[in-house]
Amino acid sequence: MGSRCEYQSNKININFKINSIPTLIFAHYFISHHDHDRRHERITKFKKIPLDQYSIEFITQIPFNLLFIEFSDNYYLTVVREKIIPSENIATNINQDYKCENINKLLNSTILNYTNLRRLKYYLLPCRENLKLKCFYDDKYMCVCDKNRYSNCFDFDHNTSYDCQRNRYCGNNGKCFQDNRTCPSTLVCMCDKCYYGSRCQFNSIGFSTSLDVIFGYHIKPFISFTKQSSAVKITASITILMLIFSIINGVLSILTFKSETLLKVGCGIYLLTNSIISILTITIFTIKYFQLIVFQMKSITNTSFIHFSCILTDVLLKILLSFGDWLYVCVAIERTLAATQGIHFNQSKSKSIAKYVIGTILLLISISYIHDPISRRTIHDIDDEQRAWCILEYSTSLKKYDKFINIFHVLIPFIINILSAICITIQVFRIRVKTKKKSAYKKILYAQIKQNKHLLISSCILILLSIPRLIISFLSGCMDSIRNPWLYLIGYYISFIPPLLIIILFILPSKTYKQEFISMIAKINFFSK
């Protein structure tokens, strides 16, 4: 700056020393004039804070005396200069010591009820009585405490409007701000709680959270994968390990359950189908994860491909996950029927029913999620990062339906698995009590649980794995900050654990399945020699 560009601009580096870092801040510059007839001049700028940063830098050519930072309806006095210093590098912090307090917290109710003019006479008290206080404000004034603990008050308009001319720029009731009323060059959105994104396009409420919502902003655009954060690298490693484990688990399960002996009953058909679905589920999840990586890194920018992926990938994941859960339910129901009917259980009938049930369940699940792809669209940020996002736009009624159907596909299998475990235990216990009346009940119950543990282990583990998803489904709150998404990210990954555990849940606990599994491994070893 300067008539000959002889001065550097002022640089102000602000570090946030508070727990909740805002996404948008307003910087109010005040310039005092020696002419007492002139009011303090105020210039306001705003700036967004990137997700991975805990500080922000302002570069300004404005000569100023005071700088207030505003966010979340709070003011912080960050810079005080009695004399304007050009080309200054300023480093300051935002913490509770710099916070401006509302006058209502500093004066008693008697003084606060005075008229404005009479009340002003008492504005010297807060600075005298609170030695750490930097500033305070009321509805009309902002007051700064000087070195001698005197209050210097000046007009401060708290209702200055920076509303956008384009009212529909921000979604989900987000507030839009522009840097110039007549010819704006920058538009930013301030989102309500539970909503975020450059246009408040995402919500983090309960089960509607997707991987894009939870993790998208942790991936930095225009930066190679090797320079991404450790969180990105760790989740990528976990995803690859899940894929490898899924292929091994799925292939070995398919080779086990394709045995003619096991396919004589419906259980074998359900588990063979689920073995195939498990590989597909984790493969689609891996594709989804790395698509998100390359899209956010801006490695792929083809709009048509991004939109096609947006429509297809998420709904496929939902269908496959729910399909796997319902196939486990079919196994649980058939095992319960086998336990209750005993020798009257019709194996051939269960086999023929299973083929129709699998197709019917897949069709019904697909229909239940048909609203998802038709409600998706891609939007592109117009800020420096130029991200592309896949978002859902539901009407009020569709939002309610989506919440219901998501909870339904988790809660009902959860309940059926619990009932199945209880019914199997009770039924087998009753049969054994009838045959061994003289035995102690506790001994009989323990013996039956031990004997039929293969029927109970799978149901109990599936119940435990469903609990985190149920908790997230029924959460009334939301992910407060995209800086701390770890609880939701863990819950999201837990939902993909059941497809990885077919061998552990069903093959190893069962003598029949385990013998077939060992026989299959022996054949593989024989042919490998």
From TrEMBL:
Main localization, broad class: membrane
Species in which this protein is naturally found: Adineta steineri
SUPFAM superfamilies recorded: Family A G protein-coupled receptor-like (SSF81321)
Keyword tags: Membrane, Transmembrane, Transmembrane helix
Transmembrane segments: 234-257, 269-293, 305-333, 353-371, 407-433, 454-474, 486-508
A GO term, aspect molecular function: G protein-coupled receptor activity
PROSITE patterns the UniProt entry points to: EGF_1, G_PROTEIN_RECEP_F1_2
Domain G-protein coupled receptors family 1 profile: 249-506
Protein name per Swiss-Prot or TrEMBL: G-protein coupled receptors family 1 profile domain-containing protein
Domain of life per record: Eukaryota
